[in-house]
Amino acid sequence: MVLDTVTGNPEDTPNGAAGADVGRNRRRRQPPGGWLQGSRLGRLIVILNVLGLAVLIGGTLILNEMRQGLVRASEDSLKLEGHVIAGVLDEDATVGEPEPALEADQASNVLQALPGLRTQRARLYDAEGHLLADTFVVADRVETRLLPPAHRPGAFHFNFDLLGGSSPEKRARDARQALKDEVDRALAGETVADTRVSEDGRRVVSVSIPIQHVRAVLGVLTLEAGDVDHIIAAERLALAPFILIAVAVNLFSSFLLTQLIATPVLRLARAADSVRLSRARAIALPDLADRGDELGDLARSLEDMTHALSERMEAIERFAADVAHELRNPMTSIRSAVETLDLVKDAAPRQRLLAILQQDVGRLERLITDISNASRLDAELGRESPRPLDVVRLLGQICALYEATAKPGEVHVRFEAPPGGDGLMVSAREGPLGQVIRNLIDNARSFSPGQGEVRVSVHGGKNEVVIHLDDDGPGVPPENLKTIFERFYTSRPKGAAFGGNSGLGLAIARQIVEAHGGRIWAENRQVDGRVVGARFVVMLKPV
């Protein structure tokens, strides 16, 4: 059987289709070996998103530490001031011997005379926990607060206090109870400093200091600083720039990621839709293909994929045209013979016409069989994955089968094993690769003389495994070294039966070899400048 595949001299076909694929994929990046390893786009996404959170968290931690420092500073200041006032009260407002007690009027006068208490509220309790003096009462200070907005009679008003689960009355009771607990602890001789909620709902820094004469607790002085809310409000105001910066960083990162990811992906989707709707044969986005990240890899992969699909569609169109042309020849001959058959009355011409019909039917059957095999080849190659294969063993088995079935007078097939008989391993599919060898042997036998011989040899190294198939035929015309592997190309020796070959064998062999990442070509063997036979060379990659 004559084979058809585009090949020629090795220098004319340096890399074949595999070389073109390597050229198109020369910029393809290697897959990452771990999480974010080798992923520039992934690192960019992580950095941009973490940056905004880092700004916000860092600002919160800094300001929270600042707030705690301000509260502690306020507590220390009130403690110092409270101890001074407690000492003054012990000296000036203590009466009675041997059991001393606080004199309420004198203590009130002392509290009123101290200028530092104008910004704080001071309360004085006796040893029983009864209130003796309150600077807000002594100074006739009136607290002012903004009233809630007025509502028309009968209008619905949502009570936010109910939403919070507490009413003003309950909040006031809780505040009085917290103050009482603080005073009780101070009456036990403990200096208490804490932040609590006052009766009007404000947070205050409160310090309760026992007033002691020797070791006796005469009362408790409670100082309150009501500027905690102002401190917190100032801190929140200071946090605003950090929040704005974090929001701006997130917005910028979102915009940047949109431009870097969403928009290119949308462009790729639209380009894929144009291919799907048959408005284009391939995706061409040069600005994305030049990118060095994963989207660039995706764009190049899509370009390569659509380019391969486009080439496949063109190959199918050419194959369909070639099939139609090849089928038309025997069909025309059959039609002509059938039309002539009724006009011929003599037995001998009718027998010749019937022989032509049988020959054309056989030729048509061979064409249909080979065309069916060629059309199923891609599916068969994709169904089985390449595996490590011993080429020496495969070639030995195929050649031994030919020798065992050879009839007297037929061309012999001899396998020349490599020195030492060591196996050469390649990554291939055993069935398709065996088909390549059988097609090449059949083709070589058809061109060899009756007493000729087909020699099969193999050798290889670290980078390649090379198979040679030599015959003793007339060789290949130099102008046909490239066209001999084309589909439906036939060039038979004189005397061969017409239509005995479909011209698809070498084309199938080339398709299988290139699917394995190898190369195949034909060349002539010469001795003293004289052609002594043809040589087919198959080059595969070793495992």
Q: In a few lines, what is going on in this structure?
A:
The protein has about 550 residues and is an alpha+beta fold. Helices cover about 50% and strands about 15% of the residues. The chain has 2 domains: about 15-30 and about 305-540, 2-Layer Sandwich (Heat Shock Protein 90); about 40-140 and about 165-275 and about 285-290, 2-Layer Sandwich (Beta-Lactamase), CATH 3.30.450.20.
What's the overall average pLDDT, rounded? Answer: 77
The number of distinct β-strands equals: 14
Q: What separation lies between the terminal Cα atoms?
A: 31 Å
Strands side by side in the biggest sheet: 4-3-7-6-5
Number of domains: 2
Q: What would you give as the CATH superfamily of the largest domain? A: Histidine kinase-like ATPase, C-terminal domain
What portion of residues belong to β-strands? 15-25%
Query: Helical content, roughly?
Result: 40-55%
Radius of gyration: 50 Å
Named CATH architecture of the largest domain: 2-Layer Sandwich
* Tally of separate helices: 13
- Decide which structural class fits the backbone: alpha+beta
Question: What is the CATH C level class of the largest domain, in words?
Answer: Alpha Beta
The outline comes out as: rod-shaped
User: Which runs of at least 5 residues are low in confidence (pLDDT < 50)?
Assistant: 1-33, 160-164, 495-500
What is the CATH third-level topology name of the largest domain?
A: Heat Shock Protein 90
Series of secondary-structure elements, N-terminal to C-terminal = HHEEHEEHHHEEEHHHHEHEEHEEHEE
